[in-house]
Specification:
It is a single chain. This protein has about 300 residues and is mostly helical. About 75% of the residues lie in helices and about 0% in strands. It is globular and about 60 Å long. The mean pLDDT is about 90. The protein has 13 helices and no strands. The chain has one domain.
Length: about 300
């Protein structure tokens, strides 16, 4: 494929990921509203929220590092989407593998820490320390999922993993060939979304929304953009590793919505963990399940 086609794909992929992410955010809000016996927001509400926030004037500036931090957060996810295949487009996935993707997914959290640290607000600092601690927790089962996929399919290339699953039909999907690891991956996906009961770094009633306490106007708008990218990335990565991706959007989008439905529904039903409890729970259960799944894969070889 020529560089012109690659350039077109890396331009379209973040835009499509953002649009799909907005649909998933709407789905999340509608599910929450239904479970709480509310009507829920209108179809374009996630987009209205972003436009409203970017239209507000920011009266307080914390300097260049504060601005750089939100650029890293948004830019990190835009770069991630260039390496995450979607139906009909691989982008830069052929030039970077799962390991590259795992490293890139750390950039938004580090950018958030950089920007919020510039504010010197104690609530923000507490929230960032908890966010980095949560990342340390879910990175372990996440890396075990990557090792399991690479071991089973003999490659860390996402296009090759998708081709291997699609070539053999549903019998070669990751959810069938490594079901225990699929459970660990689904739990880890929920933790990565940082929704209840893993919402420790926001904790509105405890640390006044943590990292968002100094984020208003365009900064908060940037975080709303990141939320759309975040839910898409978590769901698309799971769909790619365990459900064979998709040959078209008509196949890919229902899989994506089905994957995200369970975390979106669970988040309404459970209260928030304490900071330390959440980390210990992640190290105990999804990590143990992932180790079991990895052991079963090695025993089959």
């Amino acid at each position: 494929m020529g560089w012109g086609s690659v350039l077109l794909e890396v331009t379209l992929m973040p835009l499509l990921a953002f649009a799909t992410g907005l649909l998933l955010v709407l789905m999340m809000r509608r599910i929450r509203a239904r479970l709480e016996r509310r009507v829920g927001p209108p179809f374009f509400q996630p987009l209205y929220d972003i436009l409203k926030l970017y239209g507000k004037r920011v009266q307080i500036s914390h300097g260049f590092i504060h601005d750089l931090g939100i650029i890293m957060v948004v830019g990190g996810y835009i770069t991630v989407e260039m390496y995450l295949p979607m139906p009909g487009m691989d982008g830069l996935a052929a030039h970077g593998d799962l390991i590259t993707l795992a490293y890139l997914m750390m950039v938004p959290s580090l950018g958030m820490a950089l920007g919020v640290g510039q504010c010197a607000n104690p609530n923000g600092s507490i929230g960032i320390s908890r966010a980095l601690m949560a990342m340390l927790g879910y990175d372990i089962p996440f890396m075990l999922v990557i090792v399991a996929a690479a071991t089973l399919y003999g490659t860390t290339s996402l296009p090759d993993i998708i081709a291997a699953q699609q070539g053999g039909g549903m019998a070669t999907w990751g959810v069938v060939t490594m079901p225990v690891m699929a459970i660990a991956g689904l739990v880890t996906t929920h933790v990565m979304l940082a929704k209840e009961p893993f919402e420790t770094y926001v904790a509105p009633a405890e640390i006044a929304t943590g990292p968002m306490v100094e984020m208003g106007g365009k900064f908060m708008g940037g975080l709303f953009v990141v939320q759309a990218f975040q839910v898409y990335t978590a769901g698309a990565l799971y769909t790619t590793l365990f459900l064979g991706g998709g040959t078209s959007w008509l196949e890919f989008l229902p899989k994506l919505c089905a994957v995200m439905f369970l975390p979106f529904a669970i988040t309404v039903l459970f209260p928030r963990f304490k900071a330390g409890e959440g980390l210990l729970w992640v190290w105990k259960w999804p990590t143990a399940i992932a180790l079991l799944g990895l052991a079963l894969i090695y025993l089959r070889r």
